[in-house]
Amino acid sequence: MATPSMIHARCAYSPRICNRNNKSSSQQAPVASSSSSSSSSSSSASNSNFSLSSGINIGQRHQSLNAHAMSTVTHGNSISSIGNLKNDPDHLLVLVHGILASTGDWTYAEAELKRRLGKNYLIYVSSSNTYTKTFTGIGGAGKRLADEVLQVVKKTKSLKRISFLSHSLGGLFARYAIAVLYSPDTYSRDQPGDLANNMTEYFQETNFSKGGLIAGLEPINFITLATPHLGVRGKNQLPFLLGVPILEKLAAPIAPFFVGKTGSQLFLTDGKPDKPPLLLRMASDCDDGKFLSALGAFRCRIIYANVSYDHMVGWRTSSIRRETQLSKPSRQSLDGYKHVVDVEYCSPVPSDGPKFSPKAVKAKEAAQNAPSTHSTVEYHEIVEDEMIRGLQLLGWKKVDVSFHTAFWPFFAHNNIHVKNEWLHNAGVGVIAHVADSLKQQEASSVLSASL
């Protein structure tokens, strides 16, 4: 049984990044920071008892600071060149690509982030999960990413902070990796031995009121672009199936034949019937890892979601929302950020966390062994709600993106991170928004360090 833990999350926002619709009181303050703590517990999946309890305390403080941030850049195959003594980058930004992709997907974003952020950043494009390696399962890919990040950190002694920017499936790889790399406060990047041999201390009972470290560094931003946080099972979660029930029913058993273990995990059918699917476990702290504590250690969590025209990942799963929480999106871009239409600040929502009830066990067994429209819908609705309950224990900044006016709107999934500078350049405003969010949080980090 996993031990109780306290989760600490805080997030600061830039005056330039505002919510045009002013949906809630938390959106009215352009520069705000919130901290939250939650106590959590989860029990062994084999008993079908899967829960996490929490209480949330939120505080706000206003701040103003203009910081000049500078950065450097590297590719996944050039670790040995990291750490220029003259530049001494202290903030590691890890870029993680999605399914069947490679480091080339980040060519534009990498160059633009380098230009905008400067030499204080070491921008590292992960190369450990290229192409078909993305089929081997979220856990395996997450561990490879964690090992890769750890090697970068060990070779660059000047690093003090770490952030992640991930696209699509890469966001789930990154969520798993940070749980592997997470420590309450005690892990040192110079600690000898294999990473796997150091895991035991990561999962001891600890007070997380001070957050924690990722690979021995202070975690700042965790950002995802069109990531299926809730999986791809359910109506319009995998949009190219057009919401047709029979296609959505057939997709789950067929997916593993095309995308391997990753497919069953995305469709929530992995593992035995009495064991929660991996994505549900990743919405909590459990025996597999401190997934929620690792996310909570970051100062800010930002999720960008395409509201339409994304053929791979639906709006609901990429924005961690229930169907009832979706409303007609704005069609007007925010000033200076074309196709970014809305920003919503979501405070932590207290709950007793995710569970895997006997009803869910039966629904999963039916979805695995005798799939029907009724059984698959019932199972998905149960698990989706529990995943949301877990992830909402932390605060999120949710950014909606709409390419309805773009020349090629159906390229939304690739536009959002500008996979190709010529075909997908409609997303340059999104990358600009990401860069400014990173700069704002860098300024907040400098302020905190000076206090």
UniProtKB/TrEMBL annotation:
Q: Where is the composition biased (Low complexity)?
A: 24-44
Region annotation (Disordered) maps to 20-44
User: What SUPFAM superfamilies does UniProt report for this protein, alphabetically?
Assistant: alpha/beta-Hydrolases
**Protein name, please?**
DUF676 domain-containing protein
Which Pfam families does this chain map to?
Answer: DUF676
Among Gene3D superfamilies, the record links this protein to: alpha/beta hydrolase
One GO CC term on file: peroxisome
Q: Which InterPro entries match?
A: AB_hydrolase_fold (IPR029058), DUF676_lipase-like (IPR007751), Lipase-like (IPR044294)
Q: Where is the DUF676 domain?
A: 87-317
Lineage, top-rank taxon, reads: Eukaryota
